[in-house]
């Protein structure tokens, strides 16, 4: 049986790989490749957020009877992360490596903290409270397309 924690945890790694590639491209002044890499990262991140916000979080909230707990905090953090990604896109469009790298450093720190909370707390809780429904939930998350 697949675990929600494993599925979403490995998706964090997939997003991280795109993030690192974009940051490397900006550092090297490879602007066109950086645009591609940042677009891939943004798409992967939005798909990840969508899987959580449209599938896992609602299922978790229904099972626990609460939408005011950890999922509310994660949704708020998703919005903060989206705001920083927007600043990175602006810096990339301006070909401002210093600004981009400053924002990416902030994003990286926030993502690490966010992912740690999800992986060490929320996802493990989801594995427990959604036990027996994990395959169904993972299947629903897998079918999510990246937002346009």
From TrEMBL:
Transmembrane segments: none
Domain Hemerythrin-like: from-to ranges: 7-124
InterPro entries associated with the record: Hemerythrin-like (IPR012312)
One term under GO cellular component: plasma membrane
UniProt feature coiled coil, ranges: none
Highest rank taxon of the organism: Bacteria
Protein name according to UniProt: Hemerythrin-like domain-containing protein
